[in-house]
Amino acid sequence: MRTPFIAGNWKMNKTVSEAVALVDELKAALSGVSGVDIAVCPAYVALTSVKPGLAGSQIKLGAQNAYYEPKGAFTGEVAISMLTGIVDYIIIGHSERRQIFGETDALVNKKVLAVIAAGLQPIMCIGETLAENEAGQTEAVLERQTRDGLVNVSTADIAKVTVAYEPIWAIGTGRAATAEDAQNRCAFVRAQLRLKYGDLADQVRIQYGGSVTAANAQELLGKPDIDGALVGGASLKVGDFSAIVKAAAR
Ligand code: PGA
Question: How far is Cα 250 from Cα 6, in angstroms, rounded to an integer?
């Protein structure tokens, strides 16, 4: 019912020429793969350089962030309107944006709404810290982030949103959530969506992210409420990322 969706978050890695080379290799490694949606999210400066190489491929482009205002005096920011026609997806509220750059649920919500209004698809990231996890607050955090991030997102638009559940303690640590825990958290998020959106919750893709590798992808992606993965470190390696994509293909 939901097409699996694997997105590679390259973070602040790869020069423009390295990004072009990686996309070329990925295209070759993934040609002929079907039954899965695929996106790569290089740094802004590489987006227009990698774009031509992706023509005719099933790999879509995403951005790692954007600002919600349409234009103006916001030094260093990139408007969603500037990304229109280049990317299909925009990652919003990644935990590194929240923790290092102070993004709040209210800001995340403004960005999600602006991405949808521009006709693009947000990947809204949520997830608890290690301290929150150990204090038994995970569900309260996920409930708050899901609710506050999706204020005023209508029933007509909710299926355009991908939610990425990324426990912060699992990101870049090599310590992924167990498939069972990840499934339970993703099912909890879907239950929150169901309270607000009814059966449309079944159309929303929920990714797991946090130390997804070629070795653990199969088990994670086999779970009923895990509809894909947001992949950081392993998305920078052709072999690993293509193995994860192939593990998701239905
Ligand atoms: P990781 O990052 O796969 O390197 O843990 C995931 C993410 O931050 O999206």
Answer: 12
